[in-house]
Amino acid sequence: MASAALVLPGDPLPQLTPFLSPDESTASSKPKTLRLGPGLTLSPSTPSTPILPYRHGALHTSSSSKRPTASITNTPHHYHPAVQDAVLVTLLRSTADGFVVQLTPYTTPATILYDAYITNNAGTTAAVRKARPNIPVGGTIYARVATVHKHLEAVELAVPSTDFGEVLSHKSNNTATNQDLANRAEVTPYVLSISQPMVKVLAAEDTLGKPLLSAVSSKIPFEMIVGRNGRVWIDAATQREVVAVVRIFTAFDAQRMWDDPDGGVSRTRELVGKICGR
């Protein structure tokens, strides 16, 4: 990420003009080399600045060699559920119709109906009592947001496939020895609460999340599941490694390293080296 500046709707953005081709200065021009992300639009009525923001937020530009991009991001401090969001929730209790879970600490509990909980590849749901998973209170469930009732402030979740469901640690494999299994059984995964900007960092498919993840994985092999509701499930081979990854993610989030001019690359490497060793 090259830069981040706060802008308001209608503000001129002359800093984006260099991204346009030299022969595209007319009012009907369209940028060939600049990809417009959310929050930006073409404005033929302003030839001097043909790109204008239509919402407030931070202007992010990326000078990629293949195709530069620009977008306006306005990340809220709290999570607002949206249909199809993948989330990590905590089981509070079971009822006759489904599971009652905690989506976030500041919202009303959500529900997962047994009819919407797929338990196997054959499509069997938890409505079949014999197929109902025995999840302990406090267990973590990976689910998708199915319905958001805005006026009732209620959210219904679903477990649409076997890729979702109760999140468990992979404590055994075909090549593990008895000693490996004994050591692995002592490891407890950690569910870390993170900010919404940090969620975007970890879930990014472009270059935004790679400096952090590549730096950590080069020192510690680990697994993670990111929930859009501000939670990330972390697991590793030993408890010490789990704690190290949690410390790195916590420091990266608290210091907002993604706002650095280099996307946090230098400070992330220093942080990982400090916690994991050079």
UniProtKB/TrEMBL annotation:
Instruction: State the coiled-coil residue ranges.
Output: none
> Has UniProt tagged this entry with the keyword RNA-binding?
yes
- Matches recorded under SUPFAM superfamilies: Eukaryotic type KH-domain (KH-domain type I), Nucleic acid-binding proteins
Which part of the chain is the K Homology domain?
Answer: 190-239
Pull one GO CC term from this UniProt entry. cytoplasmic exosome (RNase complex)
GO BP term (any one): nuclear polyadenylation-dependent rRNA catabolic process
Any one GO MF term held by the record is:
RNA binding
- Residue ranges with Polar residues bias: 60-76
Gene3D superfamilies in alphabetical order? 2.40.50.100, K Homology domain, type 1, Nucleic acid-binding proteins
Location comes to:
Nucleus
Q: InterPro entries this protein is in?
A: Exosome_RNA_bind1/RRP40/RRP4, KH_dom_type_1, KH_dom_type_1_sf, NA-bd_OB-fold
Q: What keywords are annotated for this sequence in UniProt?
A: Exosome, RNA-binding
* Record's compositionally biased regions (Low complexity): 36-49
Using the UniProt annotation, give all residue ranges assigned to the region (Disordered). 1-77
Q: Which PANTHER family has this protein been placed in?
A: EXOSOME COMPLEX COMPONENT RRP40, PNAS-3 RELATED
Q: What is this protein called?
A: K Homology domain-containing protein
Species for this entry = Drechslerella dactyloides (Nematode-trapping fungus)
